[in-house]
Amino acid sequence: MNRAESIRVMHPLFQAGEGGSTPTSALSLVVDTLDFETAAKLNAAWHSVLPEMDKGSGKRGMAVCYCAYFDNLIYAVAIWSSPVNQTVDDGKTIELRRLAIAPDAPKNTASRMLAIMARLLKVRFPQCERLISYQATAVHAGTIYKAAGWTATSLTKFSPWGTRKRRPPRSAKQRAAAIDGYVNTPSTRRHPQVVSDKQRWERQIR
To answer: 3-204 adopts what CATH topology?
Structure first.
């Protein structure tokens, strides 16, 4: 197993794929918590739209990462935290910042993982009442959210930092509140990982 694939091993002390089998159904996957560093690395390898992830996400309010694995090998990762946008950060909402699926994951992995994580988050964060996530409309149709019982709500039009109407965040507080999807550049400005409108999806869990 090469270095990139070794990151997918759920428990490094045990051999991955001991049975030599691969999951034929998403029902075979087990969902469990995962450390942020591993989740971020796998997100960088698998996410086609938002591969980069800020390090502060692993400690932002209600923060937790999950993975879906089978036979000790990870097939999907999810990164959650309190909302980046302060206007929706009411202390009762948690945001799905990233959901990345391996190319060899079985069909319906994403929607099944979303359904299981909703139950796990309800127990882990008793104060949490709402789940939210943002879908890039130019890339995805939101099928996985519909399948998992989420509802489409507001649509945010894309607007790059640096225009006359919208300037790049300057203070640390402004940067922390910036809409997710931007990454730091060598200069003081930030550049978008994706140029697309964003559809917000929500699910009430209480």
So the answer is: Aminopeptidase (3.40.630)
